[in-house]
């Protein structure tokens, strides 16, 4: 069996974007390793930001990882860069903020894990970091370089099908008129660019449990929290909404359609 390393910016990112795939691979006997750049200590929560929140969120991360069948969890130890009041770059970010980290140095640290694990697959984010969080953009930069250093053959960008997302948001806007759909028009990835559509409906229960493990992220802040809203979705609808996870592999031609992370028309790996 093969080893897959899932690289994320903060605790709870794994639950939202890749939890079903992680649970599926672990159930199939593959070794699943979770690496996070930061402890998410500047996230919104009903706890003070800082070291205390970071410690709690790391405990939540380990709980999520256990539910998903991860064999190892690694924290790179960078500081959460946070977001500004307008949702952009925070000006008061800490000295060791991940977004400001030297890409080569951070990539070497991630590459060490990839080499230790003889990883055949690494997941990162797309160049825009999905919805633009600076730490997510840095995951793309660092992960891309780390795979080059380690010689990891398969690199998948975890993403969301933008076409389906916008369609769902248009429906939701009928009930929530204040919903700003325009901010998502350039987020994530259009359907035609996606190379992997992974059916994870059988692992929806594990994905939901991974989300629930991140209790600090279900409340806090001035508005409704995305994670909390997702956990209120009834089971059958949850399986439908979160039953597919999407990835982009840049070294495959447009129009490639694969159903498993290790499926590889180049012959590097397979789902077997």
TrEMBL record:
Keyword Disulfide bond in annotation: no
Protein name as catalogued: LmbE family protein
Coiled coil regions in record: none
Taxon lineage: Bacteria, Bacillati, Actinomycetota, Actinomycetes, Streptosporangiales
Organism: Thermobispora bispora (strain ATCC 19993 / DSM 43833 / CBS 139.67 / JCM 10125 / KCTC 9307 / NBRC 14880 / R51)
GO biological process: glycoside metabolic process
Keywords assigned: Zinc
Pfam families registered for this protein in UniProt: PIG-L
One Gene Ontology MF term: hydrolase activity, acting on carbon-nitrogen (but not peptide) bonds, in linear amides
